[in-house]
Amino acid sequence: MRDLKNYKVAAPAPVTLKGRFVTLEPYEREKHLQALWDALGGKAGINDLLKYFPNDEYAEAGELGAWIENARAVSNWVTLVFRENATGKVVGMASYMRPDPKNGVVEVGSVAHGLSMKRSPIATEAHYLMAKHAFEDLDYRRYEWKCHNENEASKTTARRYGFTFEGVFRQHVISKGANRDTAWFSMIDTEWPLIKAAFEAWLLPENFDAEGRQKRRLEDVRAGIAKDMAA
User: What is the DSSP secondary-structure string of the chain?
Assistant: First the structure.
């Protein structure tokens, strides 16, 4: 266990994180809002995609922008927009949320993956870059993922990335006029070396075939590395 007597970190700030498949950029309304709105399905699709977000349904892009900007102003969220390197197109977003610098804890949330991110390595690399920044650049101790307990896709994704399920906060909040039980996941600094090694091995070019399909699942890569570390 590390010595925490003089532990001190700063809150996350807007940052650009560049990978092989995707670049994460700090959200700017004029630069990103319309492209983000379109990537998330526009009026016809965004509300289904963001079904488990706590906000009311959106009718136009300005409402999405107002929500992002209010979260930044009131709660110190840092929203990063995902831009696909190959096409230059905006494809999704996520935010550093609920920063607790005193204790070295931050959550990744308001995660929205546009349809073009499906069956591609973009999402995996984006979340690798965000976790890496939190642990290595900011020196955080705990990185959290929370979601509506009915959101099975989000829970599956959290486990795939290497987050550990910690339990369900029952009747945690009222969301959209209904009860929300919240599933909590986390990864911590001592787990990061294994999780990082798995992300990096999975993202290697040789793990993808000519059509861009993965050869080994991230969970299997991580299990293999863990076995080697324990040997």
Answer: ----TT---PPP----EE-SSEEEEE--HHHHHHHHHHHTTHHHHHHHHTTTSSSPPPSSHHHHHHHHHHHHHHH--EEEEEEETTT--EEEEEEEEEEETTTTEEEEEEEEE-GGGTTSSHHHHHHHHHHHIIIIIS--SEEEEEEETT-HHHHHHHHHHTPEEEEEEEEEEEETTEEEEEEEEEEETTTHHHHHHHHHHHTSGGGB-TTS-BSS-HHHHHHHHHHHHH-
Cα angle, residue 203 at apex, residues 34 and 213 outer, rounded to 5°: 80
Give the residues across from 182 on adjacent strands.
Answer: 148, 169
pLDDT tens sequence across 87-110: 999 999 999 999 999 999 999 999
The amino acid present at 51, given as its one-letter code, is K
Taking the C-alpha atoms of residue 89 and residue 79, their distance in angstroms, rounded to an integer, is 17
